[in-house]
Amino acid sequence: MNLYFPWYQPGAEFTSRYINPENSVRYIPSFVAPPREVAEHLLYGNPYIPWGNWLTPIVFWWIYQVVFSFFMLSTVSIFRQFWIDVEKMPFPQTAMAYEIIRMTVERDKYKRLSRPFILGLILGLVIQVPIFMALTFPWFPDIYAWRTNTCGFGSTWVTPDSPLATVVGFQLFNKWPPFAAVFYLAPLSVLTSFMLWFLVYLIVSQVAYYMGYYTGILDLPGSGRNWCGVNIPTAGDPFKWAALSNIGGLIGLTLFYIILNRRYIFSTIKTAFTKVKEVDESKEPISYRAAYLLFATSFIAITALYVTLGMSITVALLMPIIAFIAWIASLRIFGLIGFNAVTYGGYGTGFIWLMWPVRPEPPTSEWFWAMLMNRTFLTDGFGYGWPGVMTAAFSGFKLSNLTGTSNKLIFKTLVVSSIIAPLIAIITMIWLCYSFGGMKFATFITDVNTDIVARFINPGAHENWPAAQPWIVHAIAGILIVGVLRYLHTRFLWFPMGPIGFLMATTGHTLLEGVWTMGLVAWIAKILTLRIGGSKAYEEYGVPLMSGVIAGTIVAIFMGGLIGVIRFFIPF
Length: 572
Fold this sequence. Notes:
The protein is mainly alpha-helical. The chain has one domain. About 65% of the residues lie in helices and about 0% in strands. It is built from 24 helices and two strands. The protein has helices at about 10-20, 20-25, 35-40, 40-45, 50-85, 90-105, 115-135, 175-185, 190-210, 225, 240-260, 260-275, 290-310, 315-335, 350-355, 365-375, 385-405, 405-435, 440-450, 450-455, 470-490, 500-505, 510-515, 515-570; strands spanning about 155, 170-175. Strands 1-2 form a two-stranded antiparallel ribbon. The two termini are about 25 Å apart.
């Protein structure tokens, strides 16, 4: 339960009943949101909750989450062995969780490793506690300048009067050390590629500016260079990075991964549906036959749900295909460096422009739902419920691999939580709004109580997202670039410019969050660790230290959240 699900989605569909009643009834079916007179009580609350009116929308969104969660779980079950056992992808956050387990549950056995961990724990608290205090209490000194030109993810934007503003590629620079702690556990080759490609991005963007592109960009602050207009690097000529990387790069990463690893996929299919057992299933959470049957069944169920929303069968079939392509690419990057580079920001609206080069007039229900789903659930982050299931599944199986836990037990836990969690989340959101009034919650004011229908049907809506038209050539170029980089990086181990680093350096939200600064810190720290102390120093000091930083940050965030809950009921 978080900002995105169930608050923004499906909360905004609920509130559309009274914000834009005419269009809400036209585009949003009765089984998706309750009547206006019921939804209005979300604003200020009501002691009586008409659960009968809420039942159908609750069931619809619950089923939507469950079938997509099963789609994700089946996908993970098919690829688990290759990603975890063969490739041994690091999944930095999971590696840190394992380190925390070793430092606590098995503390006596690993006593000599505890000092770096404790030091990191203290650093995490020193970093996060002042941030929380400064944002919560006006009287607390703003030690890290978190109140000044700083976004929620810890990035300070470049202002037009800054000396850095003359570098057109500079948008924001991140100053939240936990990013560096996570990146530190990524393979050095990925960090090196990230830094080299970001340098390339800065150079070619500056050259483009001197050639006459990006007129007026020096007058824009950091985030404006990412979002505002089309005369910017992400959306404008000559590169249109958001189309090249967030659409083309995303497709290319998944496409060429499947092509290069087709033998493994064919082996799992043979194992599933023939008597030839080319892949050992003994350690798998479910059999490959069960995984493929679950994949097919959930695929059909997802398609059927989208048809009920007004999509044609053709468009409805494309939705789970887009999800598969997007989240395979996303988890490839996340599993290596611990950051969601390609499925954050809703750039998947570009897939809709590929289906409809010109928006239908008037906008149809099919258009509305295809655009909304691609801007939210399909390509806008882990927080929408089922996308996080894929992340949790791979992370869970990675931890299982490290601890020796049964993969079947992990799978059962994931299935149960995927069924129960979305239902509880939706019911809890409704109950909170009826009990206290939605206007008491900041996320309700900023995200839920907004006109979701107008956002997608108004003239010009998302026409330049991901980039200014036309951008198909740029997307094709992105596919080819990632394919070539994947081949070169696989064929020549010394080749430093890999596809993961390319996407970390050039995608929309990585630029917006300014994570290049923390990537640089992690890269330098890892090089120094390995050159001075080797892999032994990295394993005995570096990993425990960085894991401690994350543990301290988590403790501080938990404390801050607890204080926030207390302040909600007892203001002070």
